[in-house]
Specification:
The chain is mainly α. It has three helices and two strands, in the order ββααα. A hairpin with a 6-residue loop joins strand 1 and strand 2. The structure holds zinc ion (ZN).
Length: 125
Protein backbone atom coordinates (compact mmCIF):
# COMPACT_ATOMS: atom_id res chain seq x y z
CA UNK A 1 0.00 0.00 0.00
CA UNK A 2 1.23 3.47 -0.84
CA UNK A 3 1.55 5.94 2.04
CA UNK A 4 1.34 9.72 2.33
CA UNK A 5 4.92 11.04 2.18
CA UNK A 6 4.23 13.24 5.20
CA UNK A 7 1.91 11.50 7.68
CA UNK A 8 2.12 7.89 6.40
CA UNK A 9 -1.67 7.54 6.01
CA UNK A 10 -2.69 5.06 3.31
CA UNK A 11 -3.40 6.68 -0.04
CA UNK A 12 -4.19 5.59 -3.58
CA UNK A 13 -1.44 4.94 -6.13
CA UNK A 14 -1.82 8.15 -8.09
CA UNK A 15 -1.44 10.38 -5.02
CA UNK A 16 1.71 11.46 -3.18
CA UNK A 17 0.09 13.13 -0.14
CA UNK A 18 -3.27 12.52 1.56
CA UNK A 19 -4.25 16.22 1.55
CA UNK A 20 -3.03 19.77 0.83
CA UNK A 21 -1.92 20.30 4.42
CA UNK A 22 0.43 17.31 4.30
CA UNK A 23 1.75 18.47 0.95
CA UNK A 24 2.44 21.99 2.34
CA UNK A 25 4.09 20.56 5.45
CA UNK A 26 6.30 18.28 3.38
CA UNK A 27 7.32 21.07 0.99
CA UNK A 28 8.06 23.37 3.97
CA UNK A 29 10.20 20.64 5.48
CA UNK A 30 12.22 20.12 2.29
CA UNK A 31 12.61 23.91 1.93
CA UNK A 32 13.95 24.06 5.49
CA UNK A 33 16.44 21.25 4.80
CA UNK A 34 17.64 23.04 1.69
CA UNK A 35 18.02 26.48 3.31
CA UNK A 36 19.45 25.29 6.66
CA UNK A 37 21.55 22.39 5.42
CA UNK A 38 24.91 24.19 5.63
CA UNK A 39 24.40 25.62 9.12
CA UNK A 40 23.05 22.23 10.23
CA UNK A 41 26.19 20.47 8.94
CA UNK A 42 28.51 23.06 10.55
CA UNK A 43 26.91 22.65 13.99
CA UNK A 44 26.79 18.87 13.59
CA UNK A 45 30.51 18.64 12.76
CA UNK A 46 31.42 21.16 15.50
CA UNK A 47 29.44 19.10 18.02
CA UNK A 48 31.11 15.86 17.00
CA UNK A 49 34.62 17.38 17.08
CA UNK A 50 33.89 18.93 20.49
CA UNK A 51 32.67 15.57 21.77
CA UNK A 52 35.88 13.83 20.59
CA UNK A 53 37.97 16.56 22.26
CA UNK A 54 35.88 16.05 25.41
CA UNK A 55 36.47 12.29 25.43
CA UNK A 56 40.22 12.69 24.88
CA UNK A 57 40.42 15.37 27.58
CA UNK A 58 38.39 13.11 29.86
CA UNK A 59 41.18 10.52 29.87
CA UNK A 60 43.43 13.01 31.65
CA UNK A 61 40.96 15.39 33.29
CA UNK A 62 37.54 13.91 34.13
CA UNK A 63 36.17 17.29 35.21
CA UNK A 64 36.95 19.13 31.95
CA UNK A 65 36.36 16.08 29.76
CA UNK A 66 32.83 15.53 31.00
CA UNK A 67 32.13 19.26 30.86
CA UNK A 68 33.25 19.54 27.21
CA UNK A 69 31.60 16.31 26.02
CA UNK A 70 28.44 17.18 27.97
CA UNK A 71 28.24 20.61 26.35
CA UNK A 72 28.84 18.97 22.94
CA UNK A 73 25.97 16.53 23.53
CA UNK A 74 23.67 19.39 24.59
CA UNK A 75 24.71 21.42 21.51
CA UNK A 76 23.97 18.46 19.22
CA UNK A 77 20.67 17.86 21.00
CA UNK A 78 19.57 21.49 20.53
CA UNK A 79 20.60 21.48 16.85
CA UNK A 80 18.70 18.24 16.14
CA UNK A 81 15.68 19.48 18.08
CA UNK A 82 15.45 22.75 16.15
CA UNK A 83 16.43 21.15 12.83
CA UNK A 84 15.14 17.57 13.02
CA UNK A 85 16.71 16.35 9.80
CA UNK A 86 16.78 12.58 9.85
CA UNK A 87 18.49 10.51 7.20
CA UNK A 88 16.83 9.73 3.87
CA UNK A 89 16.45 6.12 5.01
CA UNK A 90 14.54 7.33 8.07
CA UNK A 91 12.28 9.51 5.91
CA UNK A 92 11.62 6.57 3.58
CA UNK A 93 10.90 4.20 6.43
CA UNK A 94 8.86 6.39 8.81
CA UNK A 95 7.70 9.24 6.52
CA UNK A 96 8.38 12.84 7.52
CA UNK A 97 5.99 13.36 10.45
CA UNK A 98 7.12 10.32 12.42
CA UNK A 99 10.77 10.88 11.49
CA UNK A 100 10.60 14.42 13.00
CA UNK A 101 9.13 12.96 16.20
CA UNK A 102 11.82 10.27 16.45
CA UNK A 103 14.64 12.74 15.71
CA UNK A 104 13.33 15.15 18.38
CA UNK A 105 13.19 12.30 20.92
CA UNK A 106 16.79 11.38 20.10
CA UNK A 107 17.69 15.09 20.44
CA UNK A 108 16.12 15.23 23.91
CA UNK A 109 18.10 12.08 24.75
CA UNK A 110 21.31 13.87 23.75
CA UNK A 111 20.44 16.88 25.96
CA UNK A 112 19.65 14.58 28.89
CA UNK A 113 22.90 12.63 28.32
CA UNK A 114 24.83 15.92 28.26
CA UNK A 115 23.29 17.11 31.53
CA UNK A 116 23.97 13.78 33.27
CA UNK A 117 27.52 13.77 31.87
CA UNK A 118 28.21 17.26 33.25
CA UNK A 119 26.56 16.46 36.60
CA UNK A 120 28.67 13.27 36.97
CA UNK A 121 31.82 15.22 36.16
CA UNK A 122 31.08 17.88 38.76
CA UNK A 123 29.82 15.80 41.64
CA UNK A 124 31.09 12.24 41.26
CA UNK A 125 34.60 12.22 39.79
ZN1 LIG B 1 -0.85 12.91 4.97
Amino acid sequence: MKQCEYCAKEISYHEQYCNEECKDNALDFFDKIESKNIIFSVFQIAGIILMIIGFITGVFQAFWGTLISGCAAILLGIVFYILPFGTLEMIKKFKIKKMIKITKLIALGFILFGLIDIALGQFVF
